[in-house]
Structure formats: C-alpha cells, structure tokens
Design brief:
This protein has helices at about 10-25, 25-40, 45-50, 55-65, 100-110, 115-140, 145-150, 155-170, 175, and strands at about 70, 80-85, 90, 95-100. The protein has about 180 residues and is mostly helical. Strand 1 and strand 2 form a beta hairpin. It starts with 11 loop residues before the first helix and ends with a helix.
Length: about 180
C-alpha cells in the first residue's frame, strides 16, 4: 500500500512524532518557536540567542528539518533555516483540539515560567490549550479572569495567574489566532 506524504512531502506519522516531541521537550519547542518568529536564522544565531549547546541545536534543527517543520533556506554555509507554521487537529472521542505554534510557544516557556509548568502538571496540555484560547480574549479585553475562572472551572486566582503567564504568548501570536 502506498504511503501518502503530507504537504511537506514528509510522512505524517513522522511529523506527528515530532509534534509530540515539541510538546514534551520545552527546549525543542523554544527552538521551533524561535525559528518560526525570527527565521530565517543560522544555528549559530540560535545557540547565541537561546543559550543552548551547539550540538543540541544542530540535533534539534535536524529533527525538525526531517519532519518538515523546518527547512533550509540557504544552500551555502552558514545554512539558514525557517520554520513552517503548523496546525495539527486531533480528534478523539468527539473531542477536538488543535496544536498551534502558539501552544508550542506556551510549552516552550514551561522551563522558564513555573506558573505554566504547574498549570500543565495540574490540567495537562489540553487544559493549557483551552487556557490559551481564553488568554487571547483576556488580552483583547473581552474576558476577565473571573469569567475565565468560571469557564475553566478554576479559582479566580489560578485563572489570573495562568492568564498573566500566557499573556506574552497571546500577544505574540494574536494575529495567527484571529
């Protein structure tokens, strides 16, 4: 049976595995989000700006390139890389969730923002994705933390904390969410 490649020409299961890795590895998510926001960039620029080891940066870029989420935009050294925006929609048992660059960027902040890390521990990635949707509305002023608390079944304090933690992501990706 023939394999149906994705838009990037890469096998969809391989892309799915890389997206799963992005959600499980905040440093990889941070690198992807950085390339998406600032690309095209070289690995040296990534190493300098994200303060990660050079070998790790090369490995991550290669993994993302193999999955078709990052592509080489310059064929001469130093190579430059740009990221493909992703939108992966998953459906299980009637529930649908979309993995977006903004969600990846929120996961990328997990190592640096304890509030996001604690929220993921308590509510999982699905909970973070839903909170991110409220963060967009919080940023544009259509929702306050009390409304979000009621809708997310959180205390007002926990809602305020996660909305404030996600505010930079919501501001950065507001155009993509619209």
């Amino acid at each position: 049976m023939a394999q149906s490649p994705s838009r990037s020409g890469r096998p969809p299961i391989q892309q799915l595995q890389t997206v799963a890795d992005l959600l499980e590895t905040p440093a990889l998510a941070r690198l992807y989000a950085h390339i998406l926001q600032h690309g095209p960039v070289t690995v040296s620029e990534i190493v300098d700006e994200l303060d990660i080891p050079q070998g790790t940066a090369y490995d991550y870029v290669q993994n993302l390139e193999t999955a078709g989420l990052v592509e080489k935009t310059r064929d001469q050294r130093p190579y430059e890389y740009d990221a493909e925006s992703l939108a992966l929609t998953l459906s299980t048992d009637g529930e649908t969730q979309t993995i977006t660059p903004a969600l990846i960027a929120a996961v990328a902040r997990r190592d640096e923002d304890e509030d996001i890390d604690v929220y993921i521990e308590r509510h999982g990635l699905d909970g973070l994705a839903v909170a991110l949707e409220y963060a967009y509305e919080y940023v544009d002023g259509t929702v306050n933390h009390r409304i979000a608390a009621r809708e997310l079944d959180l205390s007002p304090l926990e809602a305020e904390v996660i909305l404030q933690a996600l505010e930079p992501v919501a501001n950065e990706y507001a155009d993509a969410a619209a």
